[in-house]
């Protein structure tokens, strides 16, 4: 029963579409009709409103931190269930016919909640790749791949499978970006 409650609560928290809500509320627009049509922070930045873009980023991180930290304190054995369900909530939100974001900001919240070092590894990898190539999508894919490699290097192989699955999910959510990267059609991202 605990598995079910933790899973559903984490999913519902993760499924709050902050990008959609903020842009509808303040710009009176549908984010799904802007840029890539994605509800995440990168597309929210494409509206030209940096405050909404970075608020979306922050809230998408926080909506993972809240359930994962709660579960980490009260039901530590269920932390990966909470993490996965919060992520799936963002990617497949029930409120938007299961068409959500790519899950990167939510994944960042998961990483920092499980282990701050994992969050630092991801952000560092993301930042280095972004500074070189200026593609948010490529940075996210490499950043998520860096986590299982980091865990193998430091010998914490017990959680490699979970983070390997998370990499596969992020790779899947970026499949259109990967096609555009291959065809040299991917848009570079301005973050400031």
Largest sheet entry:
none
Radius of gyration: 16 Å
The domain tally reads 1
Helix content: over 70%
Whole-Å distance between the termini?
A: 45 Å
Instruction: Please report which band the strand proportion falls in: under 5%, 5-15%, 15-25%, 25-35%, 35-45% or over 45%.
Output: under 5%
Work out the helix count.
10
Query: Structural class given helices, strands, pairing?
Result: mainly alpha
Task: Walk me through what this model shows.
This protein has ten helices and no strands. It has helices spanning 2-14, 18-26, 41-45, 50-74, 79-91, 104-114, 116-133, 136-154, 160-173, 175-182. Helix 4 (50-74) runs parallel beside helix 6. The protein is globular, with a radius of gyration of 16 Å. The mean pLDDT is 95.
Please tag this protein with its features.
single chain, 192 residues, mainly alpha, 10 helices, 70% helix
């Amino acid at each position: 029963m605990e598995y079910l409650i933790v899973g559903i609560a984490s999913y519902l928290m993760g499924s709050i579409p902050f990008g959609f809500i903020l842009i509808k509320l303040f710009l009176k627009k549908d984010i799904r009709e802007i840029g890539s049509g994605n509800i995440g922070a990168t597309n929210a930045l494409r509206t030209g409103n940096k405050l909404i873009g970075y608020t979306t980023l922050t809230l998408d991180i926080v909506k993972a931190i809240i359930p994962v930290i709660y579960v980490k304190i009260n039901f530590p054995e269920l932390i990966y269930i909470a993490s996965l369900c919060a992520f799936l909530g963002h990617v497949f939100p029930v409120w938007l016919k299961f068409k959500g974001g790519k899950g990167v900001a939510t994944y960042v919240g998961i990483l920092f909640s499980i282990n701050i070092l994992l969050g630092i590894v991801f952000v560092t990898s993301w930042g280095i790749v972004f500074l070189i190539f200026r593609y948010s999508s490529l940075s996210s894919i490499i950043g998520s791949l860096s986590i299982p490699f980091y865990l193998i290097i430091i010998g914490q192989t017990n959680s490699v499978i979970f983070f390997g699955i998370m990499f596969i999910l992020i790779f899947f959510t970026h499949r259109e970006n990967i096609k555009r990267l291959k065809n040299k059609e991917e848009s570079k991202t301005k973050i400031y």
